[in-house]
Write a structure and sequence with these properties.
The protein has 170 residues and is α/β, with parallel strands linked by helices. It has a single domain, classed as Protein-Tyrosine Phosphatase, Chain A (Alpha-Beta Complex). The protein has six helices and five strands, in the order E-H-E-E-H-E-H-H-H-H-E. Strands 3-2-4-1-5 form a five-stranded mixed sheet, with helices on both faces. The longest helix is centred in the middle third of the chain and has 13 residues. The termini are close together. This is Protein tyrosine phosphatase. It comes from Caulobacter segnis.
Length: 170
């Protein structure tokens, strides 16, 4: 599967430029979302790493939906994943999908590949923690994301073009 990961500002350009089979939007609960001409999944939660009053955190059900989407799409599909800035939620979803498509033990190498492809990415820690539990990775995903550290400061991330295969390489 091919993953295109981007900030919200790049979505229309990518939709016009590349054949997209599905769009995954990870957006704040009060944000508006444009209608799409392709299948579209919208998950609404705030970009937070833990509970905060008045904000919606990602849930296990949302992470399950991300993983299930990755399993249901054909191997040759292109999935466009975006959040507002393309720095935290969408890179986390891409990492989760890459880990779900790989064997246990590859978490750190996948995290380093993500860092190489996306120097500005700081994957959402709560999303990673929930996926780590769900995928039975015993802390390996959390540790791998901690190992790559915080991404470079940025208003928004760059477009990531990541092809997942048997080894989940970008």
């Amino acid at each position: 599967m091919r993953l295109l990961v981007c900030p919200g500002s790049a979505v229309e350009t990518l939709l016009a430029r590349a054949p997209i089979d599905h769009v995954l939007t990870l957006i704040s609960p009060d944000a508006s979302v444009s209608a799409r001409r392709v299948p579209h999944t919208v998950l609404r939660f705030n970009d937070i790493a833990g509970p905060r009053s008045g904000l919606v955190e990602p849930s296990a059900e949302m992470i399950r939906e991300i993983i299930q989407l990755g399993r249901e799409l054909p191997e040759n599909a292109t999935l466009l994943i975006h959040c507002f800035a393309g720095v935290s939620r969408s890179p986390a979803a891409a990492y989760i999908l890459a880990c779900a498509a790989s064997v246990p033990g590859e978490e750190l190498s996948i995290a380093y590949r993500l860092r190489a492809a996306a120097p500005k990415a700081t994957p959402n820690a709560l999303m990673i923690s929930l996926a780590d539990t769900m995928l039975h990775r015993c802390g390996a995903m959390r540790s791998a994301i901690a190992a790559i550290g915080r991404g470079a400061d940025a208003y928004e991330g760059d477009v990531i073009d990541w092809t997942l295969g048997s080894t989940a390489r970008p």
